[in-house]
Amino acid sequence: MASLHPPRLPESFAAAGWDDFLAAFGLGLLLAALVVALAMPALRRRPRRPRAAERIAAAAKLPAPERLLALSRLLAERGGALPADQRAALYRGEGGDPARIEALILGRKRGAR
């Protein structure tokens, strides 16, 4: 250590002072704010998807043709197929048999084929 040359800068520049620590703290706060801003979309709470029974109850409040359409969409999302007679009622704009479709929806597990 004794053979090293002394620094060419003034001694106040070579030693860390309170202003250097304050600047490092400020940069750390800026970096933390950037990380939080980038992570916010991943940390945001997502609303829970309604269950099949809740969606069936919401569809029950609709008029008959719209109810059949809502139930057929729910059945399709769960991997089921609408029976031919119910499909014909859907295209004619009739009410169909909602109880039968509800039984198909509730009896079918999500993703099962």
What do these coordinates show?
With 113 residues, the chain is mostly helical. It has a domain at 52-107. It has six helices and no strands. Helix 3 packs antiparallel against helix 4. The longest helix has 26 residues, at 18-43. The chain is rod-shaped, with a radius of gyration of 33 Å. The termini are far apart. The mean pLDDT is 84. Keywords: Membrane, Transmembrane, Transmembrane helix. The chain crosses the membrane at residues 21-43.
Total number of helices: 6
Structural class label: mainly alpha
The quaternary organization reads as: single chain
- Give the termini separation: 77 Å
| Major sheet details | none
Radius of gyration: 33 Å
Using the alpha-carbon principal axes, give the shape.
Answer: rod-shaped
Portion in strands: under 5%
Order of helices and strands: HHHHHH
In total, the number of strands is 0
Low-confidence stretches: none
Q: What proportion of the residues is helical, as a percent range?
A: 55-70%
Q: Return the average pLDDT rounded to an integer.
A: 84
Keywords: Membrane, Transmembrane, Transmembrane helix
Can you summarize this structure?
This protein has helices at residues 11-14, 18-43, 52-59, 64-77, 84-92, 98-107. By secondary structure, it is mainly α.
Could you name the key traits of this structure?
113 residues; mainly alpha; transmembrane; transmembrane helix
